[in-house]
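Exercise 7.
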Amino acid sequence: MKKVFIILGISAVFAACGGNSSNTGGSDSTKSVNESAKAANSDADTVVQKTGTESAGGSAGSSTGEKLIATLDCSTCHKVDTKVIGPAFQEIAAKYDASDANIEMLAKKIISGGSGNWGNIAMTPHPSLPEADAKEIVKYILSTKK
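Solution. The predicted structure, written as C-alpha cells, is:
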C-alpha cells in the first residue's frame, strides 16, 4: 500500500512540474528544454544583430522570452492576464519597471524559486536554466505591462 502512495506522490510531482512539456523522463526532457532555449536564444541574437540594439524591455527579449516560457513549466502557474497559482505576468509587470536591476533580480528569482513576494506558495526553482535565458523571460514578462 505504501508503494502505491509513493508512486502516486511521485507522479503528482512530475505532473505538476511537467508543464507544457510533452517529453517525459529526466535527461531527455532537460536536453529538449536546453535545445529549445538555445534555438530561441539564436533567434534573439539574430534580431539584435539586425537592429544593433536591445533595450531592457525590448521586443527582441520579448519574443525570445515568450518562446522560452513555452518550453518550460511556467504556464502551469502563470498566465499573461489571469492569476492562476502565481501572479499574472501583467501583475508582475505592473509591480516592476524594466530596469537592469529588476531584470537581474527577477531572473535570479526564476532560477532559485522561492516564496513571499506574492504569497506563501513557492515558485518552483529552475536551477538548470541559464541566467541569460531567465533574463529573456523576465524581459518578456515585463513587456506585458498594460
